[in-house]
Specification:
Helix content: 40-55%
Number of domains: 3
Largest sheet: 8 strands, antiparallel
CATH class of the largest domain: Alpha Beta
Number of helices: 20
Strand content: 15-25%
Shape: elongated
Number of strands: 18
Distance between the termini: 74 Å
CATH topology of the largest domain: Rossmann fold
């Protein structure tokens, strides 16, 4: 341990890194009823902590090694640290990245002059190719985590946490891919303050360090999930395993929804947008706090912010479920006029976040509905019990991955026997009661045959509704819609509707 402490204290990281702040998270702290601090490694020049270990290793290479060039394998953040270090040291860098690496990370490496090779679908496949090039071309291989100098560079984060927060810290949470960051931080923290707990955090579908600790040796996982690609490593390092086994207090695993919720927490408190692996530690801290209670200070390392913008759609969809403040339900209701309104009334004053329905032949209809739950899990159980007690068939789909990713967008299809169906696109005010006002205005004279709504965080909701309007009732229906006052567009002639949902074919 003493050798590593010396290495950490002597690490050359501040040629390229800054001492990142330890920011309070007031909103999350209030919810957890304990102080929560975020170590902001997303503020580094490459938006990740990885430049610390990479540069510390590279700065110790001989001129001959630098002249032969550097090769590495990385899912993105280590690569950017190597690219920056090579640019600073005027060395050639060849970086092998999985084809699944977000474009933002690939482009950032190329912008710093690195030669990027896309190979394989996982980090381990990229690692094999990097090792092959090391042997074939005589380049110096720079491991992303299983190297003492890299571990020492990452350990400077632990040193900074200790110096910036001299008061007691109950626990520090660190994301784990291969384990270099956790090994470095835990080694330093346990040397200086052995009473402070240090936990690694991994996705439950990429928990290579937990598997290694359980087996008492590094093991190779058959596969890993790629949602948090920054930590998608199948096998922990030998040296990182040795240090983590000695110094970590345990490993916490979390699911995709928990990471999405943590991304939202970071945004709410800092206005920063984290990548999934960057929010991993905070997700673990929240889970641990919920399971263990207490009031002591928690620190989570925000390890990176290299996120493709288009991934925000998926993260936003899953964040509320991850916070357990939204429930997704499959509900069976009678297929008859008035049943739709009765079901909405049964939900009470709760805000509806999503509603998917299509008319079906037969006596029963099936609805996919999302409901906001300020009261969390207890309120979910209360709602399901109330609906079941009212005679509705209810299934909780909140943990059903296929339902969340696919089925919610596929509810519906063509429906026969609806000659009077008209399709309208509405803008509802985004407030409780807006849907009930709509139903009250229609009354029971006009049957709803299709309904789709999803909360998008705006001040108005976008609604697509199919309504059975006989020709003789068209004037009365138009008057009811006008009196409602919601902006409305008649989409009955829209070719997309006619092709996928209506009775005819697209014009």
């Amino acid at each position: 341990m003493t050798d590593y402490i010396r290495k950490i204290l002597d690490a050359r990281v501040y040629d390229v890194a800054v001492e990142s702040p330890l920011d309070p998270m007031p909103r999350l702290s209030a919810r957890l009823k304990r102080p929560v601090l975020l170590k902001r490694e997303d503020l580094q020049a490459v938006f990740s902590f990885k430049l610390r270990g990479a540069y510390n290793k590279m700065s110790g290479l001989s001129p001959e090694q630098l002249a032969r060039g550097i090769v590495c394998a990385s899912a993105g953040n280590h690569a950017q640290g190597v690219a920056l270090g090579a640019q600073r040291l005027k060395a050639r860098a060849v970086i092998v990245m999985p084809r699944t690496t977000p474009a933002i990370k690939v482009d950032a490496c190329r912008a710093r002059g690195a030669e990027v090779v896309l190979h394989g679908d996982t980090f381990d496949e990229a690692l094999e190719e990097a090792r092959r090039r090391e042997a074939a071309d005589g380049m110096t291989f720079l491991h992303p985590f299983d190297d003492p100098d890299v571990i020492a560079g990452q350990g400077t984060i632990g040193m900074e946490i200790m110096s910036r927060h001299p008061a007691p810290i109950e626990a520090i949470f660190v994301p784990i891919g291969g384990g270099g960051l956790a090994a470095g931080i835990a080694t330093f923290v346990k040397y200086l303050r052995p009473q402070t707990k240090v936990f690694g955090v991994e996705p439950d579908d990429a928990a290579c360090m937990k598997a290694a600790l359980d087996a008492n040796e590094p093991v190779t996982l058959p596969s890993v999930g790629l949602f948090a690609e920054g930590v998608a490593v199948r096998r922990a390092g030998d040296e990182t395993f040795r240090l983590c086994r000695q110094h970590l207090d345990g490993v916490v695993t979390v699911d995709t929804d928990a990471m999405c919720a943590a991304v939202k927490d970071i945004f709410d408190d800092t206005r920063a947008v984290s990548e999934p692996s960057g929010a991993l530690a905070l997700a673990g801290a929240k889970l641990w706090a919920a399971q263990n209670g207490g009031t002591g200070t928690l620190v989570a390392v925000s390890s990176g912010a290299n996120l493709n913008f288009d991934r925000l759609r998926h993260i936003a969809e899953r964040a509320e479920i991850g916070e357990q403040r939204e429930v997704l339900l499959g509900v069976t209701i009678p297929e008859k006029p008035g049943a739709y309104r009765a079901f909405i009334a049964a939900l009470g004053p709760r805000a509806i976040t999503e509603f998917n329905y299509r008319h079906a032949e037969g006596a029963q209809a099936h609805i996919f509905v999302g409901v906001n739950l300020p009261g969390g899990v207890p309120e979910k159980h209360e709602l399901i019990a109330a609906l079941s007690g009212s005679g509705y068939g209810v299934q909780d789909l909140s943990d059903n991955e296929m339902a969340k990713v696919h089925i919610r967008y596929m509810v519906g299809g063509r429906a026969s026997g609806l000659p009077d169906e008209r399709l309208y696109r509405f803008q509802f005010p985004e407030r409780p009661g807006a849907l009930m006002k709509f139903l009250d205005r229609l009354g029971e004279d006009f049957d709803i045959t299709l309904f789709h709504y999803r909360n998008h965080g705006a001040d108005y909701g976008r609604v697509l509704a199919g309504i059975s309007v006989p020709e003789a009732e068209r004037a009365r229906f138009d008057a009811a819609i006008e009196a409602l006052g919601y902006p409305c567009v008649d989409e009955t002639g829209n070719p997309a509707y006619r092709l996928f949902l209506g009775n005819g074919t697209a014009a």
